[in-house]
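Q: Please design a sequence for this.
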């Protein structure tokens, strides 16, 4: 009884002095108009010139995208597909100032790029980078950018999914943030923010034939590669040279072919260590349960002695490799098992890495659910 009366007393005191129990993050209760006014000044518009030497006429066009300032020294983050292999990159600040931008580094695989602009930014707001690892499904998500050239546009939704792996992703190793905040061509490279106005991702693509399903590169991935992009102009990663899908028991039972669990090699990149080691790509296209497979190639069952029972095993091993590492592969092909060894060189930029480059013509990437870069 005494305990109950004590609880009533505490609640009464809290109510009397105006304290309410915390529900969620009470630091993020800033009214939306004030929040937009505060954070949108760090968002910029980016335009660049594209030269297509394969055309006789209409060789020159302009693409547009978004970005955001991350420090008062003029560093700007955006998507690689907005600025990579472009000319005359121009950044327009929210106050109307225009500045030529220098591309410090770009990575088409993670679709990230860092620019530098030489304009006075003392006192100018810069974006605050948050923690994408702490993001939860259902949280508010705010996208700010320049869709279709409409400057400083805010759209609001929620984080609708995490760790999404797009089938068309070059290395299938970049888990993306999914959101239903409306993003469109022109949003590319702009920030995806939480309710506190901190950047949790960089908007990069939308899902074809869908309603408001977009994706953003987690900001923690970005923070991990910014120093490398600035120092080397690129992300240095090893090159194996295979693309494919995980093979599981249910697939083996359906198609009734001699397969084993592991990573099914569907394509082998020309000139890669995999090609030089004689690894075989697929030959026969089949569709099972709406998923396409190119079967007939090698199946990698082990890398350096580690079994590949599911796709997470493959991603974990691949992510741990470095340039110069010696790699031993166990391969299954046509009822036979063999072993190959190779040394991993640095991965070059391949034509398949470079996203399409026209804001008026969107080209889907590979995969059953193609994604569209948003310029």
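A: Design:
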């Amino acid at each position: 009884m005494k305990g109950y009366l004590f609880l009533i007393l505490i609640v009464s005191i809290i109510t009397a002095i105006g304290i309410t129990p915390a529900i969620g993050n009470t630091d993020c209760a800033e009214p939306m108009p004030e929040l937009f006014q505060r954070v949108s000044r760090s968002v910029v518009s980016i335009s660049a010139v594209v030269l297509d030497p394969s055309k006789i006429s209409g060789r020159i066009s302009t693409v547009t995208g978004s970005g955001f300032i991350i420090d008062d020294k003029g560093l700007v983050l955006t998507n690689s597909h907005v600025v990579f292999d472009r000319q005359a990159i121009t950044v327009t600040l929210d106050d109307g100032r225009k500045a030529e931008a220098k591309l410090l580094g770009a990575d088409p695989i993670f679709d990230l790029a860092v620019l530098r602009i030489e304009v006075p930014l003392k006192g100018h707001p810069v974006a605050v980078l948050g923690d994408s690892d702490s993001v939860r499904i259902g949280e508010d998500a705010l996208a700010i950018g320049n869709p279709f050239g409409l400057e400083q546009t805010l759209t609001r939704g929620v984080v609708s999914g995490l760790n999404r792996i797009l089938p068309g992703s070059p290395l299938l190793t970049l888990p993306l943030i999914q959101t239903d905040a409306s993003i469109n061509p022109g949003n590319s490279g702009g920030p995806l923010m939480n309710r506190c106005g901190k950047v949790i991702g960089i908007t990069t693509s939308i899902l074809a034939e869908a309603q408001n399903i977009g994706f953003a590169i987690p900001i923690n991935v970005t923070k991990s590669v910014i120093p490398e992009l600035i120092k080397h102009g690129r992300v240095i990663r090893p090159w194996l040279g295979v693309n494919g899908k995980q093979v599981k028991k249910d697939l083996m039972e359906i198609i009734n072919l001699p397969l084993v669990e592991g990573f099914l090699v569907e394509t082998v990149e020309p000139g890669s260590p995999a090609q030089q080691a004689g690894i075989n790509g697929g030959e026969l296209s089949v569709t099972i349960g709406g998923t396409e497979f190119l079967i007939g190639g090698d199946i990698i069952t082990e890398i350096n002695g580690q079994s590949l029972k599911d796709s997470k095993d493959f991603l974990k091993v691949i992510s741990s490799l470095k340039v110069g590492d010696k790699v031993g592969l166990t391969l299954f092909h046509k009822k036979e098992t063999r072993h190959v060894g190779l040394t991993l060189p640095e991965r070059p930029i391949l034509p398949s890495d470079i996203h399409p480059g026209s804001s008026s013509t969107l080209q889907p990437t590979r995969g059953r659910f193609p994604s569209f870069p948003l310029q």
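Q: Thanks. Anything notable?
A: The mean pLDDT is 82. The CA atoms of residues 164 and 347 lie 24 Å apart.
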